[in-house]
Amino acid sequence: MFKKYLSTASILLAIVSLGLLPAHAADSTDPKRVALVAQLTKLSDDWDAAIVRKDKAAIEANMAEDFRQIDGDGDIETKTSFVNGVVSDKLEIDPYKVEDFEIRLYGNVALLSGRTKMTGRYEGMPFKSHYRYIDIYAQRDGKWQIVSVQISKIPQQ
Question: What predicted TM-score, i.e. pTM, was given to this entire model?
Answer without folding.
Answer: 0.81
